[in-house]
Structures are given as structure tokens and as C-alpha cells.
Design brief:
487 residues, 82% helix
Length: 487
């Protein structure tokens, strides 16, 4: 199979698997949230935020280095992939011990301490329920598969992971196993995914011995990626953690239920990143202008997706809450606020990936660190007084800071991304779509109204020639999609 065919196959496999996996993840999240109820779901969310914050150290950027080196060095990176198992394994063990010890000091509720012991193991092995196949020990296996250009196997592994998680969640609910039963699902799925990922790896070309020079190289190169992940975890989980210490578990549950609905859309930038980043790495030295054009195309698509999504979710927040969670949850207000940070989260992808592609991930890390600091400070100010609404506002502010900082750094070290060239049409189309939603909300069910509004928005983009039918068809190949408008 040719290199081009391999890339296309990998892109299509990842897009298809990600879409299916996210749909399953959303279903699992709703099943668990409705089963536990707002208060118990708040307990689970608080513990997951606590564990997730420290679990970043289980690989601390190692797996991102593996992906990057494979894209740049090809077969010469095989020893990096092999030796990473040793260092990540050691980090996972130390991280788990630290998580358990810290929980004994900081948490005063025995139920939460027991959940930390369970969920801590799942987190260091491979994330929560496979939320990321590139985390912990499982991430090493996924990176090796990607290095072997077997992205279809990564896609299959991800899809199987989510299906197993869905089946396990349904069984736990059917058997009424409670909060501990839900927590055990994460451990079982993480272990199963790790075993399968390592069984799928072809080991015949690896030298299974520790090479200390390679290990030093891995740790030196990984720190910037790890620091970036740590800062992302702080402002991604800090709000829930502060809420869990300062407010009630019920408020934590309501906030995280709202955040989960918005967060399920984050897979769109990550799909493009995984397929496009190797291409952007290659363009860095050979075609800087082409790199800028790819980043601008990515920003164009992210803006076109995020603005209508934010407007629609905000307007229909009450209807979405009642449809997804029922009247037992009260997520409408935080959901209507959190929806707008989609614009900044999606838009940050383009300048962020551009900085990574030109080896400025260290600078990007400091921007993320500043955004994390802003997030923590605003949460500490707003949460005691406004609870989940304050946490939602703090998240919106910190995401705006992150986008602004990333955009300025990309302009300084690469080139300015000309957002003014294409933001007008999505804004206008979103205003028209919003008027349509306001006119019909309350008279038409959300299940009908959402696809109608989406169809109207796409029709307006076609009318104003912002997109073409060929681009819509080409969306299954992110690299072709981004390259279609390069100038």
C-alpha cells in the first residue's frame, strides 16, 4: 500500500471511529448520569477531577513525543517506542502511589478515598473509560500502532473500547451495583484496552532492552508536552475540584453534566489534529507558507463549526437539559454559558497546533499555564458566591485568554492567521439560525428543531459560497479538506 493510500485510510478510519466512539461515549455519560442522579454523579465527577489532575504525570508528554518522532524519523524511532514502555511504567506506578497518599491527606470522606483507589488505577493505566487512548500505559501501545502506520487498528481499538464500556455500564445499571460498580467499570475497561493494544503491537523489530541515552532524550523532549497537558488539566479539572471542596456534590453534578454535553464536541479538533499534525510537522521546514495555509484552513473550519454550535446550545439549553437528563437535573444555566467557550476552544486548535508544528510547544505551554492561573483565580473568586454559574463564567474567561495568547504567539513566531477573512459569513448565518430557533422554540421539539436549524445553517453557508458540496463530501479526509482552500 502506498504512503498516500495509507494516510487516507488512516484518516478515514480515525474519523469514522471517533464519530462512532463519541456517540457511544455521550450515551454512556447520559446513562451513568441518569442512573446516579445529580448528587452521586457530583461525587464521581469530583473524584475523577482529583485523580485526573495527578494522572497527567503517568506519561507526562511521553506519548506525544513518540507520535512526533515517528512522523519525522520513520523507522529510526522504533527504539524510542520500545524504551518508552519502561519509563512510562515506572511513572505510572509512582503516580498511582502519590494519588492514593495525597487523597488520604486531603479528602475527609471515606467514600471518596475508596473511589480514588479504584479510579486512580484506571487513570494511570489508560485514562477514564478510554477517553484518550494516548494516556498512560495504553498510550504507549497506541503510539506504537500509530508508529507502525496501523491507524485502522487504533481506530478499531478505540471503537471496541467504547462498546465494551457501554455494555458494562448497562450491566451495572441493570444490576444496580451503585457508585462502586460504576467506578469498577473504568478499571476493567482500562486493563482490557491495555492488554489488547499490546497484543496488537508487532514486536519483532524492537530491541527490548533499556537504553539510558534514549530514556534521557525522551524525558528531555517530553517535558514541554507534559507541561502543556498539566496546564490543560488544571484549567480543565480545577473548576470541578474547587467546586467539590467549596460547594455541594449536587452542584458539582449539575456543572459536570452540563460540561459533559459541551465536552463531547471537543473530538472535532482532536480528529483533525491527529490526522493533520504529522503533515504540519513535515511542512515546517519545506513549505512555511503551506503550513500557514493549512493552519488558516483549520481555523476557518473550526470557526464555522463552533459559532452555530454555541448559539444553538445556549438558546436551547433548557430543552436540551430536559431531553437528555430529565427534570432531576438543573443544568440549563451553566450549559447556556459553557456553550460559548466552544468558540474559543475550537479556534485555539489552529494557532496551538501551528506552534507545536514549528517546535514552539514550550511557548504554548506557558500560555496554557497563564490561562490555568486565570482559571484558578477566577474560580476561587466566583465559585464561593455563584457556584456552578461562577465556574462556567471562569471557564469562558480562561478559554478566551488561552485563544488570545495562542493567537498572538502564532503571529509572533510563524505568521498571523487572518481570521477576519472568513468569520463574517459564519456569524451572519448563525444570527439567522438563532432567529429561527427563537421563533420556533417551545412549539417544536428539540429533536426536530436541531436538525432543521443545522440544515438552515449549512444551506446559508452554501448560498454565500463559504463552502462547496465537494468540501462537505471531502470532510471524511481531513487532510484533503484542509488543503482544499489553500491559497
Amino acid at each position: 500500500m502506498s504512503q498516500k493510500a495509507r494516510i487516507l485510510r488512516g484518516s478515514v478510519s480515525l474519523v469514522s471511529a471517533d464519530i462512532a466512539s463519541k456517540a457511544i461515549s455521550a450515551l454512556v455519560a447520559v446513562v451513568i448520569a441518569r442512573y446516579l442522579g445529580q448528587e452521586r454523579y457530583g461525587v464521581l465527577s469530583g473524584v475523577m477531577a482529583f485523580v485526573g489532575l495527578f494522572a497527567i504525570f503517568s506519561d507526562f508528554g511521553m506519548n506525544q513525543v513518540l507520535v512526533r518522532q515517528r512522523a519525522r524519523e520513520g523507522a529510526d524511532s522504533e527504539n524510542l517506542l520500545a524504551n518508552s514502555l519502561f519509563v512510562v511504567g515506572c511513572q505510572c506506578l509512582l503516580t498511582y502511589l502519590c494519588i492514593v497518599i495525597i487523597s488520604r491527606v486531603t479528602l475527609d470522606v471515606e467514600l471518596k478515598r475508596k473511589l480514588v483507589v479504584i479510579l486512580g488505577g484506571a487513570a494511570v493505566v489508560g485514562g477514564f473509560g478510554g477517553q484518550s487512548l494516548y494516556a498512560g500505559l495504553t498510550g504507549v501501545g497506541a503510539a506504537i500502532l500509530q508508529g507502525q502506520q496501523r491507524m485502522h487498528m487504533v481506530a478499531l481499538l478505540q471503537l471496541v473500547n467504547r462498546l465494551v464500556f457501554l455494555v458494562a455500564a448497562i450491566l451495572v445499571v441493570a444490576c444496580d451495583l451503585g457508585l462502586h460498580g460504576v467506578a469498577m467499570i473504568y478499571v476493567a475497561v482500562a486493563l482490557l484496552t491495555l492488554i489488547v493494544s499490546l497484543l496488537l503491537v508487532r514486536t519483532d523489530s524492537f530491541q527490548w532492552r533499556v537504553n539510558w541515552s534514549i530514556l534521557r532524550y525522551l524525558r528531555t523532549e517530553a517535558w514541554a508536552f507534559g507541561l502543556s497537558a498539566l496546564f490543560a488539566a488544571v484549567y480543565g479539572k480545577g473548576d470541578t475540584l474547587i467546586l467539590s471542596f467549596l460547594r455541594t456534590d449536587a452542584e458539582v453534578g449539575a456543572y459536570n453534566a452540563a460540561y459533559t454535553l459541551v465536552g463531547e464536541l471537543f473530538f472535532l479538533p482532536s480528529i483533525l489534529a491527529r490526522s493533520i499534525l504529522p503533515y504540519m510537522y513535515q511542512l515546517h521546514n519545506v513549505n512555511p507558507r503551506g503550513l500557514r495555509n493549512v493552519a488558516e484552513s483549520l481555523l476557518r473550519w473550526m470557526v464555522a463549526l463552533a459559532i452555530p454550535a454555541a448559539a444553538g446550545i445556549s438558546i436551547l439549553s433548557t430543552e436540551i437539559n430536559d431531553l437528555i437528563y430529565g427534570t432531576a437535573y438543573d443544568t440549563a444555566v451553566p450549559l447556556s454559558i459553557l456553550a460559548w467557550f466552544l468558540i474559543f476552544r475550537f479556534s485555539t486548535a489552529a494557532p496551538g497546533y501551528l506552534l507545536t508544528a514549528i517546535d514552539r510547544q514550550g511557548r504554548r505551554s506557558w500560555v496554557q499555564g497563564f490561562a490555568a492561573l486565570v482559571n484558578i483565580v477566577t474560580n476561587l473568586i466566583l465559585i464561593p458566591r455563584y457556584g456552578s454559574i461562577g465556574a462556567s463564567i471562569a471557564m469562558l474567561i480562561s478559554e478566551a485568554v488561552l485563544f488570545g495568547g495562542s493567537y498572538l504567539l502564532a503571529s509572533l513566531y510563524a505568521s498571523r492567521l487572518r481570521i477576519e477573512r472568513f468569520i463574517g459569513v459564519p456569524l451572519l448565518a448563525s444570527v439567522v439560525m438563532s432567529g429561527f430557533l427563537f421563533a420556533l422554540r417551545g412549539t417544536v421539539t428539540a429533536l426536530v428543531l436541531i436538525p432543521l436549524a443545522g440544515g438552515l445553517y449549512v444551506a446559508l453557508l452554501l448560498l454565500f459560497r463559504f463552502i462547496s458540496l465537494s468540501e462537505i463530501v471531502g470532510i471524511l479526509s481531513p487532510r484533503d479538506m484542509l488543503g482544499s482552500r489553500q491559497s
